[in-house]
Amino acid sequence: MKCDFCDTKATVFLTQLVEGEMKKICLCNACAKERGVTDPTGFSLADLLLGGLPGGPGLAIGNPTTVSSGGKKCPSCGFTMDDLKKVRRFGCSECYGTFSDEVGQMLRGMHKGATHIGKVPEGLMANQIRTQRLEELRSRLDQAIAAESYEEAAGIRDEIRTLDEVNH
Amino acid sequence: MMRFATLIKHPADWMTGGHGSHGAVLTSRIRLARNLRHHPFPGWAKREQRATALGVIRPAIEALSVMKDAFSHELDDLSSVQKQVLVERHLISREHAARGHGSAAVIERRQSFSLMINEEDHLRMQAIRPGLQLSAAFEALSALDSELEKSLEFAFDASLGYLTTCPTNLGTGLRASAMLHLPGLVLSDQIGQVLQAVNKIGLAVRGLYGEGTESLGNLYQISNQSTLGESEEMIIRRLERVISQVASHEQNAREKLLEDDPAMVADKVGRAYGVLRHAHIIDSKEALNHLSLLRLGGNLEFFPRETVLLCDALLMDIQPAHLQLHAGSKLSPEERDCSRAEILRSRLHSLESPDIGTSLKGNSEPLDHSNPENT
Question: In the 3-class helix/strand/coil scheme, how is chain B assigned residue by residue?
Answer without folding.
Answer: CCCHHHHHHCCCHHHHCCCCCCCCEEEEEEEEEECECCCCCCCCCCHHHHHHHHHHHHHHHHCCHHHCCCEEEEHHHCCHHHHHHHHHCCCCCHHHHCCCCCCEEEECCCCCEEEEECCCCCEEEEEEEECCCHHHHHHHHHHHHHHHHCCCCECEECCCEECCCCHHHCECCEEEEEEEECHHHHHCCCHHHHHHHHHHCCEEEEECCCCCCCCHHHEEEEEECCCCCCCHHHHHHHHHHHHHHHHHHHHHHHHHHHHHCHHHHHHHHHHHHHHHHHCCCCCHHHHHHHHHHHHHHHHCCCCCCHHHHHHHHHHHHCCHHHHHHHHCCCCCHHHHHHHHHHHHHHHCCCCCCCCCHHHCCCCCCCCCCCCCCCC
